């Protein structure tokens, strides 16, 4: 059974009834972020709670309901020369879905693309929110503009909780200027160790690298700006770091297309093999990537080496034995928990939070348990 509330009041009433009955729910919007078919419960789809509440380009703030499509928001922002700086990815190619990515799913998953290493993650741009918790209570936190954001930052807790603490009904986000000029330096014939060394050198400069990724013997560094002369100056200074390397320059549309594919994991799309997302220290990335590849699959690096994608064989104990912070994004026939197990003190805190926000354990039960 699928339930589709049309507004916050209907959602609150529905969740309150499910809380009383201790009946679990699987929270979805566009269905493009997390594979949830293995979870117990009826589907609660919030795509009907949609629409932009307000957008103030001058204040660089946006307020939208969770079912609002990401494409609608990005088009509206681009018309004003603005964007969501954290570059949320489109996971449909990786997960084989045909739904519509929504802003609620972005915030619930803390979905952040390559520009995270420069601009921060989704949660760093979240100003405020409204949600319905597992008791059916409507809660709100934060403000609608930067100057009003005070007190306990509940948004940092909710963003990335994947609906296990509450169902979003409204999010307020900071927007930033859209950089019209972009350029990518592609360094060919490098190893993962070489790539991380190049990333470390480039990211230590003042030349504002906004993307640093590696796959299949190629490393990419992206720079963006308001004017071409400024970009050319930064390019020339960065090229000085790569003496003796084979470097290709990608401008405009070619650079945009490349980073869209890297953002969306296009190189791991079109297959049903298990896909893991691994958070690491960048200096550990070459060693961990090599160990994962020894299992028989392929890897790529993003966030300057702070993020590894691994696609290929390997049971969960084998993958997490190499990379303890590995999250299973595409199951590919694997069972078990998608999220890694937490240390005992962290697990106790997590369980305490869930008892507070969802005492009957009805919201995506089991999704984030390792």
Automatic annotation (TrEMBL):
Q: Which organism is it from?
A: Paracoccus lutimaris
* UniProtKB keywords: FAD, Flavoprotein
What GO MF terms are annotated?
Answer: catalytic activity; FAD binding
The opening ranks of the lineage are: Bacteria, Pseudomonadati, Pseudomonadota, Alphaproteobacteria, Rhodobacterales
Q: Name one Pfam family in it.
A: FAD_binding_4
Task: Please give the name of this protein.
Answer: Glycolate oxidase FAD binding subunit
Per UniProt, residues of the FAD-binding PCMH-type domain are 1-178
Please name the InterPro entries in this protein's record.
Answer: FAD-bd_PCMH, FAD-bd_PCMH-like_sf, FAD-bd_PCMH_sub2, FAD-linked_Oxase-like_C, Oxid_FAD_bind_N
The superkingdom listed in its UniProt entry is Bacteria
């Amino acid at each position: 059974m699928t339930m589709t509330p049309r507004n916050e009041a209907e959602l609150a009433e529905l969740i309150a009834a499910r809380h009383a009955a201790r009946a679990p729910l699987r929270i979805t919007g566009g269905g493009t972020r997390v594979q949830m078919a293995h979870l117990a419960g009826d589907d609660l789809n919030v795509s009907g709670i949609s629409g932009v509440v307000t957008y103030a380009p001058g204040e660089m703030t946006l307020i939208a309901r969770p079912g609002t499509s990401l494409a609608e928001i990005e088009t509206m922002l681009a018309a004003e020369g603005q964007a969501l700086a954290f570059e949320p990815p489109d996971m449909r190619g990786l997960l084989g879905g045909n739904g519509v990515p929504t802003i609620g799913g972005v915030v619930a998953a803390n979905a952040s693309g390559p520009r995270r290493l420069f601009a921060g993650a989704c949660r760093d741009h979240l100003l405020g929110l409204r949600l319905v918790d597992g008791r059916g209570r409507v809660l709100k936190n934060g403000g609608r503009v930067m100057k009003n954001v005070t007190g306990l930052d509940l948004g940092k807790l909710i963003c990335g909780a994947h609906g296990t603490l509450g169902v979003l009904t409204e999010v307020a986000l900071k927007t930033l200027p859209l950089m019209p000029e972009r350029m990518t330096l592609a360094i060919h014939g490098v190893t993962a160790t070489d790539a991380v060394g190049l990333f470390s050198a480039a990211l230590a400069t003042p030349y504002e690298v906004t993307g640093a990724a590696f796959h299949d013997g190629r490393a990419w560094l992206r720079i963006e700006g308001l004017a071409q002369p400024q970009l050319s100056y930064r390019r020339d200074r960065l090229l000085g770091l790569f003496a003796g390397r084979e470097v290709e320059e990608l401008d405009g549309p070619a650079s945009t297309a490349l980073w869209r594919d890297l953002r969306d994991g296009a190189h791991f799309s079109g297959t049903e093999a298990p896909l893991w997302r691994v958070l690491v220290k960048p200096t550990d990335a070459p060693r961990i990537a090599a160990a994962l590849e020894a299992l028989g699959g392929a890897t790529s690096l993003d966030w300057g080496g702070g993020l590894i994608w691994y696609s290929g064989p390997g049971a969960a104990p084998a993958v997490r034995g190499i990379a303890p912070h590995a999250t299973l994004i595409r199951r590919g026939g694997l069972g078990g928990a998608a999220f890694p197990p937490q240390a005992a003190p962290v697990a106790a805190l997590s369980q305490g939070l869930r008892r507070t926000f969802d005492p009957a354990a009805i919201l995506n039960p089991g999704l984030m348990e390792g």
